[in-house]
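Worked example

This section walks through a single chain of length 382. The input is the sequence exactly as stored; nothing has been trimmed or padded.
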Amino acid sequence: MKITDVKLIYAKHYLFVKIYTDAGIVGLGEAGNWGYLDATAAAIQKFSSYLIDKDPFRIEDFNQNFYRSVYFRGSVIMSAISAIDIALWDIKGKALGVPVYEMLGGKVREKVRVYASIMTKAESLTELSEGYRALKEQGFTAAKIFVNGPVKTRNDGRDEFFSGRIEEELEKVRVCREAVGSDFDFVLEAHRGMNVPEAITFGNEVAKYRPMVFEDPITPDNPDAMAEVAAKVPVPIATGERFINLKEFETVMARHGCQYIRPDVCAVGGITTSKKICALAEAHDVLVIPHNPLGPVSTAACLQLCASIPNLGIQELPGFCLNGAEDAMVKEPLHFENGCLMIPDAPGIGVELSENAEELYPANERGSNAAKRAFDGSVKDW
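Given that input, the structure is written out below as tokens.
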């Protein structure tokens, strides 16, 4: 079997890749660098010329080749590698007639618990409370709460000052806990929006509401700073969604900087690298929460990974797809039941794009070049 063609598909704010073979088998992948899709597409096209007439089964070899062939690396390159890698695993599974998880060691669970990863921020505490009550009624047992500051500056910045900021974030968690009760888990999403003193103070005070995860309290660039937060906060820390190679994960875990790691299968090197990261995490007694803010191919690839690793924490389910919003993008949507996604048993990654996905979901890239600003006009992390 040989690779004959590589095609790109833009739908909504996603970039998919299809890899064709002379056996009629087509593999499907997705790129993770959602803010720079055109640049990622160009990288995939550059890699495509190398793929033509090659054996698609040589997945590790392709992954190593594209990572090491030129000395430039970064998020664009790694997202391109990821999309190709996922598509190659899809081809191999279809050719052998098995789901990808069978090639990763087989299933260790029958379903994967997910949390609702809400992508919008409620404007009032009442709205917030009602929203989380509704999520529980829909069957979720866990959900994300944004604790990364106000959407817009108000009150002359008083809600951005140290004490006011901490109090506002605590109130969000309090009303949500009252809304859903004790049998529901929270992933507190700081989105890298706190500094070290804020993260330590908030992390200690919010512990009384028993959140499951405190995600990316600070920017992940300094693993020693993340380790300081992890050492001083009783809430488990999660980080890694911005990482783009295996060694970044090893560095933060070696410094005891987190209790959960968040590899993005569409950004870190695909299923190949993600499986290695999960094995590293197992050796460090760290749990895995795959990052998944993308489309149905990303979710399907994550499910294959989650099905095969022993140290799964929970899986992210993006708000974009809740309530069937993206079901028509694929021929057969993934099945949600009682707070879990069922693991598909179809060969490959388990999903196929609809023939008219591009028409149903016109391309509309996320992100902008305008950074978030604080009350004084300075740039904030996002």
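What to look for: The CA atoms of residues 104 and 308 lie 6 Å apart.
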